[in-house]
Design a protein that fits this description.
The protein is mainly alpha-helical and 114 residues long. It has one domain. 60% of the residues lie in helices and 5% in strands. The protein has a two-stranded antiparallel ribbon.
Length: 114
Amino acid sequence: MLQNLNILDIASAMARHAAQRHSVLAENIANSDTPGFKAKDLEPFSDAFARAQRTGEVDFRAERITTGDPSPNGNTVSLEDQMARSAGTLRDHETAMAIYSKAMTMLRTSLGRR
C-alpha cells in the first residue's frame, strides 16, 4: 500500500525548484546595475516535471529571459519584473509545503497516528 508515495517526491521537487528559482532571481536583482548583465530564470516547474517524466532528468535549467528593451548599459534586469517573479516563487514554495504537509497528515491519519 505504501510502496509508492509520488506526491511527496513531487512536492519536494516543487519546493527545490522554487528555492533554486529564488536564487536565480536574487542573482538577477543583485546584478541589476551590472553593465551587460542578462537576466535569467528557470524553466517553469511544469516543463521540468514533464521532462523528468520522459527522461528521468531532474535538474532545473536556467535560461535567459527578455523583459523588454535593455537599458543603455546593456542590462536586461527589470526590478519590477524580478519582484513579481519572486512573489510568484514564494507562492509556489508555499503551495509545495502545503501539499507536503497535507500528504503527511493524511499518511499519519491512515496509520492511526495524530
